[in-house]
Amino acid sequence: MKIKAGLISLLAALSFLSGQCCIIDAGHGGEDGGAVAPDGTLESELNLSISLKLDALMGLFGADTVLTRSSEVIDYPAGAQTVRERKNADQVRRVELIASRENAVLISIHQNNFGDSRPSGAQVLYNKHSGSAELAARAHHFLGMIDGQKMRSSAEISEDIFLMRSAECPAILVECGFLSNGEDLSKLESDEYRTKLALALCAAYINYISCPEDTNG
Length: 217
Ligand SMILES: [Zn+2]
What we know:
Layout: H1 2-15, E1 21-26, H2 43-60, E2 64-67, H3 83-99, E3 104-112, E4 123-126, H4 132-143, E5 155-156, H5 162-166, E6 171-178, H6 182-188, H7 191-210
Parallel strand pairs: 1-2, 1-3, 3-6, 4-5
Antiparallel strand pairs: 4-6
Helix pairs in contact: 1-7, 2-7, 4-7
């Protein structure tokens, strides 16, 4: 009976997905590779891999998604000449894409990096918009269910991050791990681990949409 009850609640939850749009933002890309691991792995490539996996999983549940980028190549406007101008134009394009969707929820995927190799673990940051802290709590909960996963405390994100400051919807930025930490990096370089991360974020989104107010995970 437990399985039947679970299935009924899952199907009830999935009906909430219609009319909602999950914007999946693979951080960086194009001329901006983001952080670089000691072995040369680019943050932008890991972010894209996890984002594409998340998009595919969301599709299985019938969730409407939009990717802010789906490859490492970004088309910049002709007027943007310098790297900085191109990066800014790309960020503005992403914000406009988010604003163009009704009932959007933003999940931005990034990797952390630090001068010291000791810090490790995943962290979920959230913007000031209502619902963001609740969504972050679900992401923290489900990421924490991955075997051996170390979670750092969730926190409100700095106002310096343009995309997160400008997103007028529930928005989280997930730092999946530290490229500067050997253990985190070897996990992030595993396809299976990146699938687990995507699955946890998919579960967090569905759980949040089905019951936005419940912060007990
Ligand atoms: Zn980043």
